[in-house]
Write a structure and sequence with these properties.
9 helices, five-stranded mixed beta sheet, alpha/beta, 12 strands
Length: 279
């Protein structure tokens, strides 16, 4: 989501920052995404200068996912009204999407999550949704989860296997490792082709997950050709250029677009897992 809205933010001359987190929650991914998309759309649309920040804070045994901005803010008398259908904050130069925020609040109630708004007229606003904390790597000691805390399990199980993640963005590598390990995969992660080749020399892998745009003008296709492995490979990119799709398909590889949808990746990996288990 940050990648999607960063493009819009740049066009408006503002910054969009993401404060990453390694914590897990349990919720409906599509509905939670809609709530946060609404918050981000509002923040980017009504912030004329400064920045928008999306991040996560601990709140007791919960997590609070926050979207803050340096926009016009919302007068206290309008803060409740903007969650009503077709209402906008009169003192906030139009901040609020009327029906959008009403739907966000209804969706949050459906999920059992609480919405919160803090705002300072002339300085900015923070919209947040509180979700349960399920797991965080910071809660581990010597690699063992704290008592009563466990990572989300894959309800359908899976053979797993070894996966190589190649991406020049450290935050992406971190997120992919957490996601894949939660599904039972063992992960090798590299920032560049040479680093990846060193890892592959020591460990056979069952799937390659390759970012398309790497450093030094290299691509995931360059990596695939350099590795010379006969294992399933997926090119992952935010670039929707048809020429890239054609090159990927010509090499017989699979293509997924960013922002990556975990369900799409999971569906693809299940097919690969079946081959790992059979092998």
């Amino acid at each position: 989501m940050a990648d999607e809205f960063r493009v819009m933010a740049v066009e408006r001359g503002i910054e969009l920052e993401l404060a990453s987190s390694d914590a897990w929650t349990r919720s409906d991914p599509q509905l939670l995404r809609r709530i946060l998309m609404n918050f981000l759309a509002n923040a980017v649309r009504y912030t004329e200068r400064g920045r928008v920040l999306i991040g996560v804070r601990r709140a007791g045994g919960d997590l609070r996912i926050e979207v803050g901005d340096t926009g016009p803010g919302i007068d206290e008398r309008d803060q409740r009204a903007i969650f009503d259908e077709f209402r906008r904050g009169e003192g906030a130069r139009g901040q609020g999407l009327g029906l959008g925020l009403a739907i966000a609040e209804r969706t949050a109630r459906l999920l059992g999550h609480a919405l919160r708004l803090r705002s300072w007229p002339g300085k900015g606003s923070v919209f947040s949704v509180t979700v349960p904390l399920v797991f965080s790597r910071r809660a581990e000691t010597l690699g063992q989860p704290a008592p009563g805390i466990s990572p989300p399990a894959d309800p359908e199980g899976g053979a797993g296997g070894f996966a190589l993640v190649l991406d020049n963005d450290a935050s992406v590598r971190h997120a992919m490792r957490a996601l894949l390990e939660g599904w039972g995969w063992r992960v090798l992660a590299a920032a560049g082709i040479e680093e990846a080749r060193g890892l592959l020399a020591a460990q056979r892998v069952d799937v390659l997950l390759l970012d398309y745009h790497l450093d030094l003008g290299q691509t995931g296709l360059d990596a695939w050709r350099a590795f010379g492995l006969k294992v399933p490979a997926v090119i992952i990119t935010a670039d929707r250029d048809e020429a890239i799709r054609s090159r990927v398909e010509a090499d017989g590889l699979l293509l997924l677009h960013k922002p990556l949808r975990p369900l799409a990746l999971r569906s693809l990996l299940r097919k690969i897992e079946a081959g790992v288990a059979a092998g």
